[in-house]
TrEMBL record, chain A:
This is Fe-S-cluster-containing hydrogenase component 2. One of its GO terms (molecular function) is 4 iron, 4 sulfur cluster binding. Keywords: 4Fe-4S, Electron transport, Iron, Iron-sulfur, Metal-binding, Transport. It comes from the Bacteria. Coiled coil: none annotated. SUPFAM superfamilies: 4Fe-4S ferredoxins (SSF54862). It holds the Pfam family Fer4_11. InterPro entries: 4Fe4S_Fe-S-bd, 4Fe4S_Fe_S_CS, RnfB_subfamily. Residues 3-33, 44-75, 77-106 form the 4Fe-4S ferredoxin-type domain. It comes from Thermosyntropha lipolytica DSM 11003.
UniProtKB/TrEMBL annotation, chain B:
Ferredoxins are iron-sulfur proteins that transfer electrons in a wide variety of metabolic reactions. InterPro entries: 2Fe-2S_ferredoxin-like_sf, 2Fe-2S_ferredoxin-type, 4Fe4S_Fe-S-bd, 4Fe4S_Fe_S_CS, NADH_UbQ_OxRdtase_75kDa_su_CS, PSI_iron-sulfur_center. Residues 115-145, 155-184 form the 4Fe-4S ferredoxin-type domain. Residues 1-80 form the 2Fe-2S ferredoxin-type domain. This is Ferredoxin. The keyword Iron-sulfur applies. It comes from Thermosyntropha lipolytica DSM 11003. GO terms for cellular component: membrane. It holds the Pfam family Fer2_4. Signal peptide: none annotated.
Amino acid sequence: MGKILYVQPEKCTGCRTCELTCSFLHTGEFNPLRSRISVVSFEKEGFFYPAVCQQCSPAPCMMVCPTGAISRNASTGAMEVNHEICIRCKMCMIACPFGATFYDERANQIIKCDLCGGDPACVKMCRGEALSFSSLNPAVGSKKRAAAAKIKEVLEEVR
Amino acid sequence: MKLIIDGREVSAYPGETILEVCRRENIFIPTLCYHPAFKGQGVCRMCMVELEDENGNRRMVASCTYPVQEGLKIVTFSAKIDKVRKNIIRLLASRAKGSDYIQDLAGQYGVEPLDLPGLDNEKCILCRLCVNACKLMGSSVLAAVWRGIDKKISTPYEEAAEECIGCAACYEVCPTGAIEMKEENGQRIIWNKVFNLVLCQHCGKAYATEEQIALVERKTGISLPALCEACRSQNLAGRLKNFSG
């Protein structure tokens, strides 16, 4: 398994540097509306959460794409959009559980995090270290998953 | 395998069409009915190229449907091809008087449209990209109906189709803006069918039709709360906030 973009919202300061970095590197513009990462802020509580593609496996966006325009890049593990064959039906936006698939109105394109081809720029610019790009050891990964599944069960019971 | 395109040797894979090879090699061939998401249709004939045999005889083929063969000699532009393309544009511009896209194209090619009566607001050029998009979406609602000069793209019996999910993929792929879609008062009207848009529970934005959401749920097996994209991440963040605080 490759590296993952790890988000720690409790460390996020809400500076939105990641949004600007992302839009500048992908479009040449400092425009948060064209960014592939979006910070949700709760100013009163001082809580911020950078919403970004979690590169799900299996990925709902890929499951609903009628043209096969969304596919996983085998080397980086990122779900990438092939703009050539995308017909902009926007099913992926409806299907994304995290609301992390965006539509760039100016370019008329579906945009989502592509991990910058395996070296995410937002991570380098993040001052609060809320974003990090770390590798996941397969042995630890499966244990993490099992532990997370238990927590999920407990939470569901509580709810 | 090797091909010769405009005197240049180019490699190609079996099963590819001439147009696909040219696109990859950055050799320009104009197209109207081609979209990389679908197979070549051979409808508009704008992509005509000439094939040359050993004796130097040439014949014209539609590059979007012609599969590559070993040693094929292809000419992508000649006086004859230019004439064919100009004729096509002239005829389409005479038909689609209402389409700015086609009229601009006629200006670029320097052709005068013919004066045909009764076609003042026509925009459709019958390229069938919408038909392909609808098929791929799994609805297969659109098709060419009637024949001859009455031919047009529509739903069965030109009525609201049961299978239509109002995704507007047809509207998005249409190159000439011929498909009409209206969104007002929480409703989307397309192809004579009225869809109730689902409103985001948080901000009230109309973000999808009920049918679209049902299709997503069927394909993914996940049922999401009725929230628009932005509010979905906000909802998630709100839950994380309670968890960490």
